[in-house]
Amino acid sequence: MMSEEAVQMLVAYNDPSDQQSLSLGDTSSTEESPDESRLSLETANDTVPYIGQRFATHDAAYKFYTEFAKQCGFSIRRHRTEGKDGVGKGLTRRYFVCHRAGNTPVKNSNDSKPQRNRKSSRCGCQAFMRISKTTELGAPEWRVTGFANHHNHELLEPNQVRFLPAYRTISDADKSRILVFAKTGISVQQMMRLMELEKCVEPGYLPFTEKDVRNLLQSFRKLDPEDESIDLLRMCRNIKEKEPNFKFEYTLDLNNRLENIAWSYASSIQSYEIFGDAVVFDTMHHLTAFDMPLSIWLGVNNYGMPCFFGCVLLREQNLNSLSWALKAFLGFMNGKAPQTILTDQNMCLKEAIAMEMPTTKHALCIWMIAAKFPSWFNAVLGDRYNEWKAEFHRLYNMESIDDFELSWRDMVNSFGLHTNRHIANLYAIRTLWALPYLTSHFFAGITAAGHSKLINSFIQRFLSAQTRLAHFVEQVAFAVDFKDQAAEQQTMQQNLQNISLKTGAPMESHAATVLTPYAFCKLQEQLVLAAHYASFQMDDGFLVRHHTKLEGGRKVYWVPREGTISCSCHHFEFSGILCRHALRVLSAGNCFQIPERYLPIRWRRISTSPGKPIQSSSNDRGGRIQLLQDMVSNLITEASKSRERLDLATEQVSILLSRVKEQPIPSQCARDAAVMHRKI
Questions:
Q1: What CA–CA distance (Å, rounded) separates 620 from 632?
Q2: pTM to 2 decimals?
Q3: 470 and 235 Cβ atoms separated by less than 8 Å
Q4: Residue 108 class from Cβ within 10 Å (0-12 exposed, 13-18 middle, 19+ buried)?
Q5: How far apart are CA 545 and CA 558, in angstroms?
Q6: What is the CATH number of domain 225-365+453-476?
Q7: Per-position b or e across 622-646, b if 16+ CB within 10 A of its CB
Q8: Range of 221-225, 282-286, 558-562 with top mean pLDDT
Q9: Spatial distance between the Cα atoms of 436 and 366, rounded to a whole number of angstroms
Q10: What ranges do the domains of the chain cover?
């Protein structure tokens, strides 16, 4: 471990100033004896500079002195030259000094410009080496004419000296590797760990630090914005040539500079066909490195996993730009608008949705609102903040509008929030976020807290990617591919799990063969609860209430001839899963299978719509992979029904896998597979 003093010295060594404050004259050009060297470390004689030592070039002399300094425990810098090219004999003398030579320059204070209070490493060290140019033997050469190894500071140990800036270098190969990692969105700390493993070095022993990597990545961002925009458009066109189903739109300003750009991938457009009924349009992100707001369209697939639909970068978020973004998105999705769209509080966005998606239900995303609670209520409520937050979420999840209204007034009175403007605003827009007002609209379970964590985790994957704007479209594609791989693994795990039937009802066993494990678990919860409810036939339908209650309940309307059923709780309309009230009526009416229309395609194991399978062109690799994943999922479902089926499937898949491995792999595909393997 380094001493505290050594750590402070290393921090000081990052001083970039290079003022020529060291004064070295010819009188110091005497060879130094080892006894005169203060605080110097012992080195081999053939590595110690000496008067008269010859070098072919001044760069060779500098390299030699650098190696000597590294062995001793310090670094050097070029200090002063005498004689200039084109004047007299040109460059005739050079000084190389210890990096701690000279004194800290006095900076002129400027009130309008913030000053960096950074400690300087300068301490007036007199160690140096001087070389002079001579032509005595015909060919020009450089000789050591002065050398002193006197240091007035402590020298570093070998395991410490490598942290000096002069010895921290990133090779071209390492730079390329870092950029590949940056595109995948992993953190700098993760990059360092991966490179340590690749190079088989101990943690902390790479020839560069995390700060160096961050500086490298930052340098790639300091490019001309116009050049970046041109490269970004070129990148999109290149992707379009390779993947015809990749779509992008952009606008230019009056100066012909990129203003807005939106894009979506072939696999995203395909997923939207089935899972685009409920969409989150997240506009809360900002690409700090590129100073552009970032908005993302996402949804949830049949296995409860986030699915990516598209991205848009806007120079400014205003009514015109947001309207353009929504138009572009609808264009990508062949004009198909979602049933519901969840967003953050944004008046411009609310107006844009009303104009561009008039048939879509607009609601506010509760987790985007809740993210602002600490800044709104923490100071106001103090120790009662957590108590209030728990009460708020209880109100949010209520089933009855009347109960919500009554409980809201009680909450305001209990916590003394009558004059709080945020509470007043939340109440004014309650129909856009409170569940009792939204149950008749489909949300695919996106309002659940678990989905917010999954979606945020996915978004952060490519927001943490650190590279050029031109590569951002590619970075998002990497993140989407990574998410698809993770989703596939979770899908396989879900399908391999043995489904446990809890009620023994025929409806339950039938639903287990049709729905994904995720959706079936949601339905199974309602089936278990249905056993606790009583059903009473009325003139206009059925009244269903909990067996412990004598009043109230839900009205269920069932028309067996038409195969339709509905409930006043609107649970099916909200989630796509039949409620316990409707299931109780079906069970009491001797219905042994849930009607087909109440097992929605979007929750089934096969991601196809009736009579219209998702088509993919022969060159749409992402689409074909999706179809293969669906086939594998269905195979596992059918094979797991009996031991004989499982044995047959295992045998045939083994044969098929052997045949697939025998097929040649094109070089480009091999490289793509290798990249994907490294990402995983």
A1: 19
A2: 0.60
A3: yes
A4: exposed
A5: 16
A6: 3.30.420
A7: bbeebbebbeebeebbebbeeeeee
A8: 558-562
A9: 13
A10: 53-103+120-162, 172-221, 225-365+453-476, 367-432, 506-603
